[in-house]
Design brief:
By secondary structure, the protein is mainly beta. The chain is 11% helix and 35% strand. 20% of the residues are buried. Keywords: Disulfide bond, Glycoprotein, Membrane, Receptor, Repeat, Signal, Transmembrane, Transmembrane helix. Its main location: membrane.
Length: 729
């Protein structure tokens, strides 16, 4: 095949349409001498410099897709080329189907050619007796051909046709096909005629789609296409099947004397419910005849009940009625010692085995639920000692039990750690320190979330690393225990601790690391010292409280006063006598005498103990008469001066002496009032007074001021009685 251009002429040895996967030669004949180039889909595949020959060829092998081949001279952008289309020749026509619409005189036929040819293919249908040479059409991409022709004679009852398909790679003709025209007639799927058909065996409260199609009769014509669907819902009916009910024992509240149970029931399927379930009626009937009714609303499928020796009935209710009542006796099952075993069947099911509980034919209830999610309980009823549990989730841990329903009472055997497939945990637990001592510590750790366990936990491993030595010790703890006491630790040593979890598939990663240090022994001693100090402080507080009683206070003060040192009376000093009547020059005396002087002049006004003395003459040698002393008791000290004498001939002048509330730095003593010696020099007296500054002050809360008396007294006239020293009133 030649295609001419301005620069060159191209040629394909097999034309533009070639067999898919074939090979051919592509050639270019140039009109002038030039450097020749050949391109395939825009990519250069051959290069020839100027030579005598004007023709340039290339072999194309195994072509499987559309290609564009072109040639041009170097330096000249204008090409010449050809498009190559690979494809298949047609197959023999088959599967002819012709249809005549009842309201039309045209017949439509459709057939296939086996497979799509990829390249353009022409279809032709010829009718026997028709002067028309044929009815042509183009095959579509899926390999179907379609033609329509008229039936020109009403008396034509037989249709004879043959088919022809062709393309550049080949041509195929079918055998002659004949048939009755009446068999080709197809009715339309819808018309205005109405007909009625009763359909039975439908489910209540169910939505259905209805479609129809038609033909002339059972033996003539073709079926029409399906009509558009119409939706219709059936009415509800009362449920006619009882619920499947099971129960488990629950922990009863502390204040309840009854036993508590959790009642479960299975939801009815659509065919059994026969409508939307609106509620569940639960009745509790105790042995004494007492009845209690409970209403549960979907989606709830369980109810907690506390009763004693009772039975429970459960039924489902929809808009049309109530299902048959299911009655179950609530009895505590006895425990069976037989062991249950299981083996995985696949990722979603296991086989469960157990020994025979009772006589053959006993019904068993096998229940199971995910650990920690009793709401997801499921159960089945079997009469064998084997059960296949299905619908399990991989990497999920289940627990359950097998209960034998015996006339003498149910008997149960439990099983834990059921899993169809598991792997090592995804997450580790987080530890925390509960207490620590010098040589031991208590540790606990958190639960791993169910979704992170990836199966059934079997044990934990506690790891302890000595930070000083680098040694790592481990301790195994069975699940579900989550605490451990570590002993053999060293005082004042730091450690790192972490915990891992195990399933049957292996060990999971560690959780968070817990650093801690053990305390010193000295800290223990410190705690004892603190405890002892607290005890002493408590004792002092108790003693202070006791001292608040007046009798105890007085006795204690008396003891303290006997221990006071002897302090001379500043009033007997030389300076004080010299300026006794001269208040103007009293400033020449030491500061403490000045203070005493000021206090002395205040005595008459503030006195609390009054002494009534007569003036007496010192020249008289007679013993003075005893006089009465009026004593005003001071409430918080002991009275220790019983009596004293003064000459009767003395004047009636009355001298007042008081006990002052506050004395600054010195007090009067027995030695001071006994007198007899005076310091001769003023400086010596001043120095003597300054030496008394170290003596205790009467500001002490345990001391109270003593009695001051003016003048000189001898031991003969001052009689001190200590017989009541410890018996103060």
């Amino acid at each position: 095949m030649l295609l001419a251009g301005a620069v060159c002429t191209v040629r394909s040895s097999k034309g533009e349409e070639v067999l898919l996967g074939s090979s051919f030669t592509f050639s270019c004949i140039f009109n002038k001498q030039c450097t020749k180039l050949i391109f395939r889909n825009g990519t250069q595949i051959k290069y020839i410099k100027k030579n005598i020959s004007k023709e340039l060829s290339v072999n194309i092998e195994n072509i499987t897709e559309f290609n564009t081949l072109s040639c041009r001279c170097e330096g000249n952008p204008e090409p010449c080329g050809i498009d190559i289309k690979p494809g298949y020749p047609p197959d023999i026509p088959q599967n002819l189907t012709c249809v005549q619409n009842m309201n039309s005189h045209n017949v439509s036929c459709i057939w296939t050619t086996g497979r799509g040819t990829i390249i353009d293919t022409t279809c032709q249908l010829r009718v026997h007796g028709d002067l028309h040479l044929g009815y042509r059409s183009i095959m579509n991409s899926t390999g179907f051909c379609h033609s329509t022709f008229p039936i020109k004679s009403s008396v034509m009852s037989q249709l004879v046709v043959w088919l022809n398909v062709s393309n550049t790679l080949g041509i195929k003709t079918s055998e002659i096909t004949s048939g009755e025209i009446t068999h080709l007639i197809m009715l339309s799927p819808q018309n205005n005629d109405k007909s009625r058909l009763n359909i039975s065996s439908l489910h209540p409260d169910t939505m259905y789609n209805f479609q129809i199609r038609r033909k002339i009769n059972h033996t003539v014509g073709l079926w029409s296409d399906w009509s558009q669907p119409k939706r219709k819902k059936t009415k509800e009916e009362a449920p006619d099947k009882a619920l499947d009910v099971w129960y488990l024992q629950e922990l009863k509240p502390p204040e309840s004397k009854s036993k508590c149970f959790r009642i479960f029931w299975k939801e009815l399927n659509i065919s059994d419910a026969k409508g939307k379930i609106q509620r569940y009626n639960i009745s509790v009937l105790e042995q004494k005849g007492k009845s209690n009714s409970i209403i549960a609303v979907p989606p709830s499928r369980n109810q907690s009940i506390c009763c004693y020796n009772c039975s429970v009935s459960v039924s489902a209710v929809n808009s049309e009625g109530q299902s048959p009542v299911k009655i179950i006796q609530l009895r505590l099952p006895g425990l069976h010692t037989g062991l249950l075993s299981h083996k995985p069947l696949n990722n979603h099911s296991i086989a469960l085995f157990w020994p025979k509980f009772d006589i053959a034919g006993t019904e068993y209830v096998v229940h199971w639920y995910p650990v920690g999610n009793i709401e997801g309980i499921q159960w089945i009823r079997v009469v064998d000692t084997t059960a296949h549990i299905t619908g399990l989730q991989p990497q999920e841990c289940y627990q359950g039990a097998v209960t034998a329903l015996r006339s003498s009472g149910p008997k149960m055997a439990t099983i834990k750690g059921i899993s169809s497939w598991q792997s090592a945990p995804e997450q580790g637990p987080d530890p925390e320190l509960h207490w620590k001592k010098t040589e031991s510590s208590g540790v606990a750790w958190s639960e791993i979330p169910q979704k992170k366990r990836r199966g059934c936990l079997k044990k934990y491993t506690v790891y302890l690393m000595d930070n000083l030595k680098g040694d790592i010790h481990n301790f195994s703890v069975d699940h579900p225990k989550r605490q451990y006491v570590i002993s053999g630790l060293s005082p004042r040593q730091c450690y790192n601790l972490w915990v891992t979890a195990w399933t049957d598939a292996g060990e999971g990663p560690r959780g968070s690391v817990l650093p801690f240090c053990t305390p010193l022994d000295s800290e223990k001693m410190l705690s004892l010292v603190i405890l002892a100090g607290g005890a002493v402080l408590l004792a002092c507080l108790i003693l202070l409280c006791i001292c608040q009683f007046s009798s105890v206070h007085r006795r204690f003060l008396c003891c303290c006063q006997c221990l006071l040192p002897i302090i001379p009376d500043p009033a007997n000093s030389k300076c004080a006598k010299t300026y006794a009547d001269d208040q103007v020059n009293v400033w020449k005396c030491p500061r403490r005498l000045q203070e005493f002087w000021g206090q002395l002049h205040e005595l008459p006004r503030l006195s609390e103990i009054k002494f009534y003395l007569d003036q007496w003459d010192s020249s008289v040698n007679e013993e003075p008469d005893n006089v009465e002393v009026e004593e005003v008791p001071y409430p918080s000290i002991c009275t220790y001066i019983k009596s004293f004498s003064q000459e009767s001939s003395s004047s009636d002048a009355t001298q007042f002496t008081r006990i002052t509330d506050i004395m600054e730095d010195y007090i009067s003593t027995h030695g001071a009032i006994s007198g007899g010696e005076e310091e001769d020099e003023y400086e010596k007296g001043e120095r003597s007074l300054d030496e008394f500054e170290f003596f205790p002050s009467t500001h002490s809360p345990f001391l109270e001021p003593l009695v001051l008396t003016g003048g000189k007294l001898t031991l003969d006239v001052v009689k001190i009685d200590c017989s009541e020293f410890l018996d103060c009133t």
